[in-house]
Specification:
By secondary structure, this protein is mainly alpha-helical. It has one domain: Substrate Binding Domain Of Dnak, Chain:A, Domain 2, CATH 1.20.1270. The protein contains seven helices and no strands. The protein has helices at residues 2-14, 18-94, 110-115, 117-123, 126-192, 202-210, 219-228. Helix 1 (2-14) runs antiparallel to helix 2 (18-94) and helix 2 packs antiparallel against helix 5 (126-192). The chain starts with a helix and ends with a helix.
Length: 229
């Protein structure tokens, strides 16, 4: 578009029609500048949007891996504790104290154990209870590490997003300011034009006839183009 209007400006310069010359020069420069601004915006989108969110996608994958590992360990712990709890419940119901695996450190009487589920559960199967406790401690340690990692990643992501999009916002403002100035100049140009030149003006028609035959499309071609459009 810019090249077309620049060519039209040169033509109207030959025709000595200053208003249309200025108009096409303005349009030519405007469209060339608009093209440049649009190219800047495309580059901004490709470099500062697409690449940034591609990195975000990879980071999200890492977070999902951590969450899956956390969920898996939590499920393993839940399964271990459920199995131990069901086993203790069965042993307590059957009253088979000999199978409770009571250690020498148990100071409770058998009668107390048989009549108090809470105390019995605390004393029976000490080895398996200790293993479940160790598993819970490991899970807690792992969970704390994940929380710390999430906190670190969230802080980094917050800083990255703030710094990145502050730059993107400023660059975008600069581009849109260029476009705004471009259109403001066009508004000013067309506002100050007092007379609209009629393309059928005899002076222009006569001047057209003095130009080389191939400068403009033939009348039939123009009519055909108009009909097709």
């Amino acid at each position: 578009m810019g090249k077309i209007h620049s060519k039209m400006a040169r033509i109207y310069t030959k025709l000595k029609v200053p208003t249309l010359t200025d108009t096409h020069e303005t349009l030519g420069e405007a469209f060339l500048n608009l093209k440049t601004s649009c190219q800047k915006m495309v580059k901004l989108i490709n470099n500062d949007f697409i690449k940034f969110f591609r990195y975000q996608k990879y980071e999200l994958s890492a977070i999902e891996d951590l969450l899956n590992a956390w969920s898996e360990r939590r499920s393993e712990l839940s399964a271990t504790e459920k199995k131990l709890r069901e086993k203790k419940d069965m042993l307590f119901t059957q009253k088979l104290v000999a199978k409770w695996g009571l250690g020498p450190g148990c100071k409770e009487s058998v009668d107390t154990l048989l009549n108090n589920r809470t105390i019995a559960f605390k004393e029976m199967l000490p080895s398996e209870t200790s293993e479940a406790h160790i598993q819970r401690v490991h899970y807690g340690f792992y969970a704390n590490k994940i929380v710390e990692e999430f906190t670190r990643m969230n802080k980094k992501e917050e800083d990255d997003i703030k710094r990145h999009f502050l730059k993107v916002a400023k660059d975008s403002c600069d581009i849109f300011e260029e476009i705004n100035v471009l259109w403001a100049d066009m508004v000013a140009h067309f506002t100050q034009i007092k007379d609209v030149v009629d393309p059928s003006d005899e002076k222009i028609v006569r001047a057209h006839e003095q130009l080389p035959a191939n400068t403009f499309a033939k009348k039939e071609e123009l009519a055909a183009m108009k009909k097709n459009n």
